[in-house]
Design a protein that fits this description.
Elements (H helix, E strand, L loop, with lengths): L2 H7 L14 H11 L11 E6 L2 H11 L6 H6 L4 E7 L1 H7 L19 H19 L3 E5 L6 H8 L6 E9 L17 H4 L16
Antiparallel strand pairs: 1-2, 2-4, 3-4
Helix pairs in contact: 2-6, 3-7
């Protein structure tokens, strides 16, 4: 599929078909694409926990449960594959203390933006795009703050890892449009500032 078509088709799927599993080879392709994501210092400080059995997925959903199932939870929990995306801050502190970087103090204040999370998010986006290319539906969603420790315990994730989010993979069972889409998509004239903030894109309003 052409890249522009992949981008155009990418959307968040919230209703998955529980009777159509994703084969391991396809999951590996999605993960291999994720590993091509950029990372600061080529640190690659990410880990991905794949949950593709009913037992493994139940461990995750039990660790995050705090309410009666609603339409969102019923639809998303039907996804046959979950990929928990984790970042490793220590890997970045170690990498940037190496001779070619030289931040030997390992001070987190040097990181006003936590690139361990940014890079893991980039990897997750590549998963979403790869899923489209593989003919799958996908969703990126977050784990409630109160459930992070419980999810780590349930899945054996080290305490040093941060849970950035989860990618659900599967086949779409039903098209559901988020009410948030009524907000519309910001255009170039709103989101892009050329040269300085507030300057419009050159030629945007010219034929």
């Amino acid at each position: 599929m052409e890249f522009s078509e992949v981008v155009r088709r990418r959307r968040m799927v919230r209703r998955f078909d529980p009777d159509r599993p994703v084969d391991h080879n396809t999951v590996r392709k999605v993960l291999a694409t994720a590993l091509r994501a950029p990372s600061a210092g080529h640190t690659q400080g990410w880990d991905f926990v794949v949950l593709d059995t009913p037992e493994a997925r139940q461990h995750f959903w039990a660790a995050t449960a705090d309410r009666e199932p609603d339409a969102w939870l019923i639809g998303v929990s039907a996804a046959p594959t979950l990929i928990v995306c984790c970042s490793d801050p220590e890997a970045y502190l170690d990498r940037y203390a190496e001779p070619d970087k030289g931040w030997t103090d390992r001070d987190t204040a040097r990181w006003p933006i936590p690139y361990w999370d940014v890079d893991t998010g980039m990897a997750a986006l590549l998963m979403l795009l790869s899923a489209v290319d593989q003919g799958l539906g996908a969703l990126f969603f977050g784990v409630p703050a109160r459930a992070h420790d419980e999810v780590r315990r349930a899945l054996g994730i080290p305490a040093s890892r941060r849970i950035v989010g989860v990618v659900a993979l599967g086949h779409e069972a039903q098209r559901v449009t988020s009410p948030s889409l009524r907000r519309g998509r910001r255009g170039l004239e709103e989101a892009v500032h050329w040269g300085t903030y507030g300057e419009s894109v050159p030629g945007l309003h010219h034929a």
